[in-house]
Each structure stands twice: as structure tokens, then as C-alpha cells.
Design a protein that fits this description.
It is found in: Secreted, Extracellular space, Extracellular matrix. This is FAS1 domain-containing protein. The protein has five domains: about 240 residues, FAS1 domain, CATH 2.30.180; about 130 residues, FAS1 domain (Roll); about 120 residues, Roll (FAS1 domain); about 130 residues, Roll (FAS1 domain), CATH 2.30.180.10; about 80 residues, no CATH class. The strands form ten sheets. A seven-stranded mixed β-sheet has the order 10-9-15-14-13-12-11. Strands 25-24-30-29-28-27-26 form a seven-stranded mixed β-sheet. Strands 1, 2, 3, 4, 5 and 6 form a six-stranded mixed β-sheet that branches. With about 725 residues, the protein is an alpha+beta fold.
């Protein structure tokens, strides 16, 4: 009884210490407790793959492949994992059931390592420990960590290998078991990622990885039940039998004749690196994988050391990724610089969504090798035209049909601005081929222009010699009227950018565009009266919201003449339609108000909705008319600062009040607040009314016109008609 008490006390002490310094593995045990909380105290939910005996704790990451997930209790669920499994419930480490009680309410007594092997049902390891004379050692004094293969792991071992072990139990089997042991206690919290620890077999190394998702591996064998505390150590049950590792990745490549195409001469540039200490994962293509490459590919790249280096490094990760730790859709950066997505499909690994791993987890002293049946080709090893995919297939086909491929030779650097397929409408496709060729030439640039090198106002030269402009916005990069979509790529001889629409380079100035259009006669006339015509012609970058003739329908010819006669007021109104900078629809941030400061000084409130624009809550029927000095958006209303309206003032009545002073103000004022002591103004904004009764407005200092108080008066003075902003 005293021994049991001491054992229980020791276990509780170890558990409490472990909780103080928890690891990612400890968190998945906690997660398993939560999943099983309805089953009673100290119960852990385990993941068991159907058709196998393997049980393991759920990792902290969820899979994304759909399959049926059933529980051993009464209700059924559907979750997203890689294959069908059941969810049994077991006592968490260190606890046991009591008859008639729910869950696992009792702390299990602990035994020595040999006895613990029986408690965790690692009976084959226990049997082999007895056969090899290891039993006495792991029952006796000392402190050990044993990474014990499960019974199923022994069953999966190659029969020839197993036969060689059991035929010489005192040497081969004994040494093999010693390689699974460390001569001191190490709980999972002590097993750090990328750690190398010394085994009890000839001081050979064991290679530990402790992943953030809670999975812990030893030589890529997963710990499926960890921290089974013993009086003289701890037992961790693993899912495979491990063998001693002596080769580096370089050595492993050198002795495998099936990898000669990769290792010589392609990998010669990284062979030295793969022979040094480190933590690498290599996806090594077999010789057959190279035979399946497109004819001429290897011959084409052999003379380009940069492309060869990119190809090889795309197969290399600067981290150890054992197969058991790989969850669906995990993205990793390669030594080449771009990323690969590694996932799982059942028991198979996938790379970039494709099942291609022939053999996994070839463990080396500096990492792990996975053999694959195809060569991974990064974008940087492809020609630019090879980067064009099905979403730009119309562009690709038309480039070929119209004879533009000749400008894109492997030794020539160029950039493709490839429109997505929807950009090629029936109307576009019905154009004459000579015109289509001109349009497509606007999408092929001389030289390589990477996305990171583009800047606002930059001029890019097309293969036809035209210069097109770059516009940089907070959330978009645009070229002329067309903006890029996500997916830019860099090839061996250039770059590819995906464009939302066809590029329409500007041909002439804002002035000439408006003149040729025919809808802006009044606007152009008023610009002339205000002395602003040169603004439409000069070099620069402007956005103009140009009102059509229809926008002036509410004014008579006399009103327009009157407005034109007051140059200051006219310039104020007209310059409110201009903003410095080129703001096309695609460059405006959607769903929020974009404030564009006008040349007049106030701001326009611009909203981008789908493929249209609203300015100051008014619809813009026609957008993105490109000009060499800016862009034109067409409006059918006159825009006024602060959202006020223009009215025709018919008369003004001034009442003299004793004790107050008065300030004379012009009728064409623009001020939002009227800074006078007291003035009395009568305004009629309904010029079509007859027998108008006028309202008397008393304005106090700092008061807005919207806050006016109405009174009647009988004293008024008739003045000339004028336009004023109120």
C-alpha cells in the first residue's frame, strides 16, 4: 500500500510539473479531454483510422477533406478529414477506470518501464525486451525513456528485417531496442523541435521534431501515446519501428541509383549544402520522373545555372516535414523562395494538390527525403508564356493566332499583361484581326517588369513602341484603364501580370476627348470663359468629372451668361470638378467613401459600386475615358462644394434694425458659414413661379444657411438677377 502511495505521489508530481511547462503535445491531450468531457473525468478522445489499430490524439489543426466521421457512442457526425475513422474513448495517461463509476476517476499505479509496456498494450515490445535480455535492465535501477513501437508497428515491419532481428535476439534485437531508448527521462515537453538526442545504441542520434500542431516525431515516427510515466523513466508509444540513421541527405542521394538524374548534375549546386548539418526536407524526383518531362525541357535549361538552381531549390524546404506531421493544405516556403502546398489524401502525401509521393520519410541525419514521381517546376524555371493558365487561355490562343509569339523568344525578356477570359467579349472578338493585333500589342511589354518594381507614373514601352502609364493605388495596381488581379508571376525570361480588362491606352488630351465627344459644349464654353481651357490641354495628371450639356438644363441662356460673367464664382464651381491625380474606377477602394481633394479645395465624395461610380451621391453614367493628361468621368449634374445648390436670386430685402451694424456681402459667395452680425436676405429659388412671396432670413454670426429663421417683410429693394451659391 505504501508503494502504491509513493507511486501515485510521484505521478502527480510529474503531471503537475508538466502542466507548468506545457508543450504543443500537451495541448492536444487537453483538446482530447475536451472532446470526451461528456464521457466522465480523465477520458481522452482518440482518433483511430478504420482498418488499422492505430490510435492517436487529434492534432490541433482540422483537416479539410470530406469524409464520414462516426463515433462509437450513439450519435453520428459528419466532419471534414482525410479518411473514415472512429473516435474511441480511452483513459488519459496516468488514469484508470473503476468498476461502476463513469470515466476514469482513479490515478493508475505506476510500474517500471517493462511493466508499463504491458499497461500501454505495447506487448510485442515487452516480449522482445524479454527475449533480448533487456527486461532486467528496464526493470532495474536507472532512468530511461523508451520510444516503444506499437504492436501494429511491429506487424508492419518488413518481414526480412524482422526475421533478421529475431534470429539474433541477443545482438541485433537488443541493439535495435536500445536504439529506441535514451538513458534519462524525457517527457514530451522536453522533446524540442529539431532536437537531436543520443540513443543507448552506440550513441547514435535520434532526431526529434515537435510541431506547432502538437505532433511529436522521433525519426519521423509519431508519438501516438506519450508520457506514460514509469518508476524508472517514461514510455512513449510510436507508430513505427525506427532504424539508426547514419547518412546525410547527400549520402542518401548518392547511394540511390534511381535518383541519378536529380543528383547529377542538377543537384550539384546544392549537394554540399545537403551534406552539412541542418534541417531539410527534400522532395526527390526519380529518374522516371525526369523521363516524363516535356521533350526538350532539360536541354533548354542546362545552359542556365540560375534556372537549374531554381528548379533544384524548389524541391527543398529549410525545415523537416515528416509525413505524420503534414496536415491538409499546409503551405511551406521552398529554398527557391516561392511556396509549395503539402497535404494528405488518405495515407498518401500530396504536393500542390497532386498525389505524387512514392516513398515517404527516408530519414537522414540532417532531414528527411520524400521520393516523388514527377519533377516540380517553379515559375522561375518556366518561360513567361508557360505561366499563362486557363483563366487567360483566350489571350494565349490569340497571341499565337495573330503571330505575336515571335516576339517572345526564350532568350528575350518581356512582360505579359494578360487579360482574363471575360475581357474578350463577343464585340471584341468580332473586330478585324488587324485591329485585334494592335490591341494585343498593348499587352506585351519590352523588358521584364516585376510587380515590386512598378511605381506611380511609370511609363512602360510595348512591343509596338507605345508608352503606357502605371497608376498605384492603396488597394490596386493599374495600367491605363485596367487594373491587375492577384496572381502575378515571374518566369525565367520575364513576368506575367493578370489584367481585369483590355488595356485602352490614351490617344489625346482631355480637351480633345471632350471636343470630339460632342456632349460637353457648355462645359467647354464655361471653361473658356473662366480662362481654364489650358488646364484641359496641358501636361499633367488630372481627374475631371465633366458635366454634359444635359447638366445645365435647369439654367436659361441668360442664366449661363450671367454665371459666365462672374469669373471668380465660375472658376470656383468648375475647379470643384477637377482633382490632381488619375483616379480610375478600378483604383478606388470599394465599399468605402473615397475623398478626392479638388483643385478648388473642397473634397469630392466618391463611391465605387461594382463597375460604376457615384460622386457626391450622384450616379456617374460613363467612366474611365482615358486621356494623355488624365481621365474623364461623365456626370449629368453640376457639382457644388459642400453639396449645396445653385439658385437664381431675384431680389434682396434689407431691413434696418436699430442698434445693429451691417456688413455688405457679395451675392455670389461660397462660404459655408456667413460671418456677419445680422443681415436680412430674401431669396427666391423658384424662378418659374409667379406672384412669388419672398422669405425673410435672419442670419447670425457663424450660422449655417440651413439654420435660417423665416419672417415676413414689406420693405424690399429690387436688384439685378444674379447666381449665388447658398
Amino acid at each position: 500500500m505504501k508503494l502504491v502511495f509513493v507511486a501515485v505521489l510521484a505521478l502527480c508530481t510529474l503531471i503537475s510539473v508538466d502542466r507548468v511547462d506545457s508543450s504543443a503535445y500537451d495541448k492536444i491531450v487537453t483538446h482530447s479531454r475536451i472532446r470526451a468531457r461528456l464521457q466522465g473525468p480523465n477520458v481522452c478522445a482518440m482518433q483511430q483510422v478504420m482498418g488499422t489499430k492505430k490510435r492517436k490524439y487529434f492534432s490541433t489543426f482540422l483537416h479539410t477533406h470530406t469524409h464520414t466521421h462516426t463515433h462509437t457512442h450513439t450519435h453520428t457526425h459528419t466532419h471534414t478529414h482525410t479518411h473514415t475513422h472512429t473516435e474511441p474513448f480511452l483513459c488519459c495517461p496516468g488514469y484508470m477506470k473503476l468498476e461502476g463509476m463513469k470515466g476514469c476517476p482513479a490515478v493508475a499505479p505506476i510500474d517500471h518501464v517493462y511493466g508499463t509496456l504491458g499497461l500501454v498494450k505495447a506487448r510485442t515490445t515487452q516480449k522482445y525486451s524479454a527475449l533480448s535480455k533487456l527486461r532486467e535492465e528496464i526493470e532495474g535501477k536507472g532512468s530511461f525513456t523508451m520510444f516503444s513501437p506499437s504492436d501494429e508497428a511491429w506487424d508492419l515491419l518488413d518481414p526480412e528485417v524482422l526475421g533478421a532481428l529475431v534470429s539474433n535476439v541477443n545482438i541485433e534485437l537488443y541493439n535495435a531496442l536500445h536504439y529506441h531508448m535514451v538513458n534519462h527521462r524525457m517527457l514530451t515537453k522536453d522533446l524540442k523541435n529539431d532536437m537531436s538526442i543520443t540513443s543507448m545504441y552506440n550513441n547514435q542520434g535520434l532526431y526529434i521534431n515537435h510541431y506547432s500542431n502538437g505532433i511529436v516525431t522521433v525519426n519521423c515516427a509519431r508519438i501516438i501515446h506519450g508520457n506514460q510515466v514509469a518508476t524508472n523513466g517514461v514510455v512513449h508509444v510510436i507508430d513505427r519501428v525506427i532504424t539508426n540513421v547514419v547518412n546525410t541527405i547527400q549520402d542518401a542521394l548518392g547511394v540511390d541509383d534511381n535518383l541519378s538524374s536529380f543528383s547529377v548534375p542538377l543537384a550539384s549546386g546544392v549537394m554540399e549544402k545537403l551534406g552539412q548539418p541542418g534541417h531539410f526536407t527534400l522532395f526527390a524526383p526519380t529518374d522516371d520522373a525526369f523521363k516524363n518531362l516535356e521533350a526538350g525541357f532539360l536541354e533548354r535549361i542546362m545552359g542556365d545555372n540560375a534556372v537549374i538552381a531554381a528548379l533544384v531549390n524548389y524541391h527543398l524546404l529549410n525545415s523537416v516535414q515528416c509525413s505524420e506531421a503534414i496536415m491538409a493544405g499546409s503551405v511551406h516556403e521552398t529554398a527557391e523562395g516561392s511556396t509549395v502546398e503539402i497535404g494528405c489524401d488518405g495515407d498518401s502525401l500530396t504536393v500542390n494538390g497532386i498525389k505524387m509521393v512514392l516513398k515517404k520519410d527516408i530519414v537522414a541525419t540532417n532531414g528527411v527525403i520524400h521520393l516523388i514521381d514527377r519533377v516540380l517546376i517553379p515559375d522561375s524555371a518556366k518561360e513567361v508564356m508557360e505561366l499563362v493558365d486557363e483563366s487567360q487561355s483566350t489571350f494565349r490562343d490569340m497571341v499565337s493566332e495573330l503571330g505575336l509569339s515571335a516576339a517572345m523568344k526564350p532568350e528575350t525578356e518581356y512582360t505579359l499583361l494578360a487579360p482574363l477570359n471575360p475581357a474578350f467579349s463577343d464585340e471584341v472578338m468580332s473586330l478585324d484581326q488587324s485591329l485585334l493585333k494592335v490591341i494585343l500589342e498593348n499587352h506585351i511589354l519590352k523588358q521584364k517588369h516585376k510587380l515590386s518594381e512598378l511605381y506611380n507614373g511609370q511609363l512602360l514601352e510595348t512591343v509596338a513602341g507605345k508608352r503606357i502609364r502605371v497608376f498605384i493605388y492603396r488597394t490596386a495596381v493599374c495600367i491605363e484603364n485596367s487594373c491587375m488581379v492577384r496572381g502575378s508571376k515571374e518566369g525565367s525570361n520575364g513576368a506575367l501580370h493578370l489584367m481585369r480588362s483590355l488595356i485602352k491606352p490614351a490617344q489625346t488630351t482631355i480637351y480633345k476627348v471632350l471636343m470630339a465627344d460632342g456632349r460637353f459644349n457648355i462645359f467647354l464654353s464655361l471653361m473658356k470663359s473662366a480662362g481654364l481651357t489650358e488646364l484641359l490641354k496641358q501636361e499633367g495628371s488630372y481627374t475631371v468629372f465633366a458635366p454634359t450639356d444635359e447638366a445645365f438644363d435647369g439654367l436659361t441662356e441668360r442664366d449661363i451668361t450671367l454665371l459666365a460673367s462672374d469669373v471668380n464664382a465660375l472658376r470656383t464651381i468648375l475647379l470643384y470638378h477637377f482633382s490632381n491625380g488619375v483616379f480610375i474606377n478600378g483604383g478606388l477602394e470599394g465599399g468605402v467613401t473615397n475623398l478626392l481633394k479638388t483643385i478648388q479645395g473642397h473634397s469630392l465624395q466618391v463611391l465605387s459600386v461594382n463597375k460604376s461610380i457615384q460622386v457626391n451621391s450622384l450616379d456617374v453614367p460613363d467612366i474611365d475615358l482615358m486621356a494623355t493628361n488624365g481621365v474623364i468621368h461623365v456626370v449629368k449634374n453640376i457639382l457644388y462644394p459642400g453639396g449645396e445648390c445653385v439658385c437664381v436670386c431675384v431680389c434682396v430685402c434689407v431691413c434696418y434694425v436699430s442698434g445693429f451694424s451691417y456688413t455688405k456681402i457679395p451675392l455670389t459667395f461660397i462660404s459655408k458659414f456667413i460671418l456677419t452680425v445680422f443681415i436680412i436676405v430674401v431669396v427666391d429659388c423658384s424662378e418659374h413661379r409667379r406672384n412669388t412671396s419672398f422669405c425673410l432670413f435672419v442670419l447670425q454670426r457663424g450660422q449655417s444657411p440651413r439654420q435660417l429663421t423665416s419672417k415676413r417683410t414689406h420693405t424690399w429693394i429690387q436688384v439685378n438677377r444674379c447666381l449665388c451659391l447658398i
